[in-house]
Amino acid sequence: MSVSLYNTMSRSLEEFKPISKEEVGMYTCGPTVYNYAHIGNLRTFLFEDILKRTLQHDGYLVKHVMNITDVGHLSGDGDEGEDKIGKMAHKVGKTVWEVAQFYTDAFFKDYDALHIIRPEVVCKATDHIADMIALIQRLEVGGHTYVSGGNVYFSIDSIPDYGKLARLDLSSLRTAVREDVSSDSNKKNSKDFVLWFTNSKFGDQAMMWDSPWGRGFPGWHIECSAMSMRYLGEEFDIHCGGIDAIPVHHTNEIAQSEAATGKKWVNYWLHGEFLLDDTGKMSKSKGEFLTLDLLRKKGYDPMDYRYFCLGGHYRSQLKFSFESLNTAKTARSNIFERCISLKREGAQKVVLESETAKAHAATFDEHIDNDLNTPRALADLWGVLKDDALLPDEKYSLLLYFDEIFGFDLENLAVPKDLVVSDPEALTLLEKRTQAKEEKNWPLADSLRLQLDALGFLVKDTAAGPTLEKKM
Ligand code: AMP
Ligand code: ZN
Asked: Which domains are delineated in the chain?
């Protein structure tokens, strides 16, 4: 199977070809742990989970690395403002370490509740300061840095292709719109960025380390270059994040990584679009935002939100409303009920043999391998549930096959104990009845139904196929 992915670098769909057949290297920018993740952030992590699951479904072994930003992310992307975690620590009267740990734990609680597969490597920025210093030294040796006002800066004029991911027009940048221009007068070029801060402006910043340039802390971008290279090497396959990372964070990551190694760094760049609320992009800095916990308190299952996100393509903006979440909830509950019915009547996971079942699987693969088309893939799931030509075992097996991507964990869906029908005689009769119906032998089908009734079982014909219930 081959998978096509939209590469932000080329602005086109490309067939995915890994560097090594053994293992795919995938780096995803992790959370900045100064507050709870909002459901917009979680949308990005869900898209990355679908990507990883698709690669695994297609037989690849994936090494997924995700960082935890616990230092260096200032409130302004252009190196202005306060450290986000330091600011929160001040506000709540805790140490930066306590704040970072608290929100890291909260983040993984959401991550697990949403059935996002944990990365193979989770790395904290504060555990990798030495790697960052070594990378900055390498850039210094290559002539890509300068020290000004106490900080170490990356000089974007030291490389020929700064801004290639975002397709920045550098000629217009120097006279660009105000918010594009950093207010830091130490910069030679407004797009230069900080690799290491020692600037006294951040003197009360609690997280500080010694470095060849003085005591201070790293800039935000250097952490992702240093940690991805440590765990995935100097060239790897996939790097992801939300689209807001394109113009600054990922642009700067590429600049410094490729300047240090002299090689192309990442082959495929994938970006998830925003979740919007009534006011536009859902954002932590707006103060009020929706969390998964809040949805839970309102009676939603985390799987309702997972279903809601799968209903939109990751490269399209998705507008959140409780009305749409309710629709997702109804659909999701319906799927779970159908799956429970199948289990209840003893459906088993089997190898797909019939042409009809194989065709369903192929269509699904085609959709998911086409740049992760989850809306089409969800429609395929409904197509399976509605297809009367499929046997219950086939339906159940297709659901599990699709669920490798959807991640609802249907296989472990609990069936209420009193409803499990394991009576072999009843199951045999049900199977014979299904076959009789397929052969349009209605008198036989009716007589088998009566035999089941006499045994104490009720047969119900549903859109997902016949179900068996023990009569009360
Ligand atoms: P942060 O914790 O702020 O560093 O953000 C974590 C991830 O969420 C990043 O990849 C962001 O690009 C992404 N993100 C931020 N806001 C949104 C949003 N409204 N919708 C989708 N993703 C978002
Ligand atoms: Zn990053």
From this structure: 4-272 (3.40.50.620), 292-412 (1.20.120.1910), 417-470 (no CATH)
